[in-house]
Amino acid sequence: MAGRDWLDAVLGRGPEWKVTRVEPTLKPKEIRVELHRTGGSPLRCPHCGEACPGYDTRGREWRNLDAWGYRTFLACNVPQVRCPEHGVVTIRVPGAEGSSRYTHLGDAVEKVRRALDPPGRTPCGVSH
């Protein structure tokens, strides 16, 4: 299994989502992984599950688990659909929920980090 195919499998987004680019950001020890929906099954309304015509895309970015010691962000243009019942809505992305800035795994790690850090202290333990 080569580069992007391996990363597709590790991210577990399913066959309709493919890694198109992995690049460092301008910040040290940070990478951005770009995803693209390749198609396959019809686009569906996230509220009622009905197949709907595509409308547009909406740029989204999520914090994921760190990879190889790098802060990792997933980014993609998420398709929007025009549902007869719910109007224009953004489809669901596997591993991401609603308007959260974190993937499911990233969210879990962030909640644990916040629970372990006492109020008024930074993650490294220095008081504000």
Number of domains: 1
**Over all CA atoms, what is the radius of gyration?**
17 Å
Structural class: alpha+beta
Taking all residues together, what is the mean pLDDT?
76
Beta-strand share of residues? 35-45%
Measured distance between first and last alpha carbons: 46 Å
Query: What is the global morphology?
Result: elongated
Number of discrete helical segments = 2
Main pleated-sheet profile? 5 strands, mixed
* Share in helix: 10-25%
Low-confidence stretches: none
Strand count: 5
What is the helix/strand order? HEEEEEH
What do you see in this structure?
The chain has one domain (3-116). The chain is built from two helices and five strands. 15% of the residues are buried. Strands 1, 2, 3, 4 and 5 form a five-stranded mixed beta sheet that branches. Strand 1 (17-24) and strand 2 form a beta hairpin. The chain has 128 residues and is α+β, with helices and mostly antiparallel strands. The mean pLDDT is 76. The protein has helices spanning 3-11, 104-116, and strands at 17-24, 30-37, 54-67, 70-83, 87-90.
Entry summary:
The chain has 128 residues and is an alpha+beta fold. It has helices spanning 3-11, 104-116; strands at residues 17-24, 30-37, 54-67, 70-83, 87-90.
